[in-house]
Design brief:
Helix content is 72%, strand content 0%. The protein starts with a helix and ends in a 21-residue tail after the last helix.
């Protein structure tokens, strides 16, 4: 217990110290929200990765999907790395940075407002962000608290409050730069921790090959492959179709999440984009691939304590049970690992939500003539409000982590992914198409919560995103376009000439 407490005290002290150090960046709105657009490749890449992966992935998703799909759930981690990180940086990173600076937008709703010349779109997008980030935040508290209960026997409520207080302190003190620096520190902890934990868990099962042999003997209880031995060690697992839905939601979903896209707004320069792409992808391979790979062995730890009174498996208990037999020092590493992942994601969520509500809803609509200082103060107070609100939700009996996250990701990515992606590349996107995407993403997700016409909220989220990618171009073809003069001015930012060094370009002069 002494070892675990010491590690936690050092961790929390470091987070607060970074918040104090980063206060010098919070004098302006751009400094507080974007760190002055000066974040380098390592800070940006780690901020992206740590915001991506939290206790939701480590405890909720890894446990649930490892149990359902066996070792094939590692494909989710591969999808996260290739589609959710590598392609996201390649397709969105540079263009997001260029156009967001050209439009002087600091948030995703602000982008919609300026890109499509619509204040109503901006306000509606800010409302969607604020509403649907709350269940995501509650899911983070939920997953972390289960590990704390296992390691320290601390009540669930105490875990939620402690985490909320410390996250709030350093985000309020240092804004985006505090979260970026802390994300870098937390990311290093996550990288070392996941490798150590996987090695320890497999060692306890007699090594990697022995663990595989035991998994191969377990017959499938999935309806598609019921009774089939070896299904949980097969290439695509016992249920490939539903596995594909999970890969789409958890990978493609990042392209439309405001707290993820926000990282591209703050990139410093071209080198940061190129280097950050590589770092972010490798980070995802280790963290996400490692989490799901570990979860794939969950059935080797089957125990009566994992089931509720009705005999149903409690997915959120699988990973904590797997880790409960580890030595104290490794449990301490796990706690700090998941705490790092969760606090980095939580800090990103509260900063995104508070800045969106302040800049896109309150400023100019409710509160007139807000000075830079007042805008920063309002954001700081809203961080407190958002944390309190999410704590209240988290303290009520929570649903499964994956369900909460699926609802949040489905609504946000379903509404925003298509119009944001198309809006960066295609002049033909119309306001009506953006409204249609908002209605489609939120409509499918919310209606499915009550009608359950799609069994899994995760698959519902994947359907919402794919629907948006189809709806936006179709509606754009049949609705009125923006004025050509405005579009020319918008896309002029991509054609601006810049001078770069030879090491950045192999272009040769014409010597004839």
């Amino acid at each position: 217990m002494g070892v675990k407490l010491t590690m936690l005290i050092i961790f929390f002290a470091a987070m607060i110290a970074v918040g104090i150090y980063a206060r010098r960046h919070t004098a302006s709105v751009e400094g507080f929200v974007l760190g002055g657009r000066s974040a380098g490749p390592w800070l940006t890449a780690f901020a992206y990765g740590t915001s991506y992966f939290s206790a939701v992935v480590f405890v909720g998703y890894a446990g649930q999907f490892g149990w359902k799909y066996g070792l094939a759930c590692t494909w989710i981690g591969i999808g996260n790395a290739v589609l959710g990180s590598l392609l996201a940086w390649v397709v969105l990173g540079r263009r997001t940075r260029v156009m967001s600076q050209h439009l002087q937008s600091k948030t995703m709703p602000d982008f919609f407002g300026e890109r499509f010349h619509s204040k109503a779109l901006k306000i509606t997008a800010s409302a969607i962000v604020f509403v649907f980030l709350v269940p995501y935040t509650a899911s983070i508290y939920n997953g972390l608290s289960r590990l704390f209960e296992m390691a320290f026997d601390v009540p669930y409520a105490a875990c939620v409050i402690i985490m909320a207080v410390f996250t709030g302190i350093y985000v309020i003190l240092g804004g985006y730069m505090a979260t970026a620096i802390n994300d870098f520190i937390q990311g290093i902890i996550m990288l070392g921790g996941i490798v150590a934990v996987i090695a320890a868990v497999l060692s306890g099962q007699g090594g990697f090959l022995e663990a595989i042999r035991k998994m191969a003997e377990i017959p499938s209880d999935v309806p598609v492959t019921v009774g089939q031995p070896g299904a949980f060690t097969s290439f695509f697992g016992p249920d490939p179709l539903n596995l594909l839905g999970v890969v789409i939601l958890t990978s493609l979903g990042t392209w439309g999440l405001p707290q993820m896209i926000h990282k591209f707004y703050a990139i410093r320069d071209e080198k940061s984009v190129n280097t950050g792409t590589v770092i972010s992808t490798l980070f995802a391979v280790v963290i996400s691939g490692g989490c799901y790979f570990l979860g794939g062995f969950g059935r080797l730890f089957d125990d009566t304590s994992l089931y509720d009174k009705t005999g149903n498996i409690v997915y959120d208990s699988i990973i904590p049970h797997m880790l409960s037999t580890l030595p104290d020092i490794l449990i301490g590493i796990v706690i700090v690992l998941v705490l790092s992942a969760s606090m980095s994601t939580l800090s990103s969520l509260v900063l995104t939500s508070s800045s969106t509500l302040t800049l896109d809803f309150l400023k100019g609509n409710v509160l007139k003539n807000m000075s830079e200082k007042k805008q920063v103060r309002v954001m700081q107070w809203l961080i407190v409000f958002f944390i309190v609100l999410s704590v209240v939700l988290a303290l009520k009996p929570p649903a499964f982590i994956a369900q909460l996250m699926g609802i949040s990701w489905g609504a946000l990515a379903g509404a925003f992914l298509a119009p944001f992606l198309y809006g960066l590349y295609w002049r033909g996107v119309t306001r009506a198409a953006v409204w249609a995407s908002f209605a489609c993403g939120v409509g499918i997700t919310v209606s499915n919560m009550f009608l359950h016409y799609i069994e899994s909220p995760i698959n519902a989220g994947a359907v919402a995103m794919i629907a948006g990618l189809v709806v936006v171009p179709v509606v754009s073809v049949f609705t009125s376009k923006l004025q050509k003069e405005k579009l020319d001015e918008l896309f002029a930012c991509y054609e601006e000439k810049v001078v770069i060094t030879k090491k950045r370009s192999l272009e040769q002069r014409n010597t004839k």
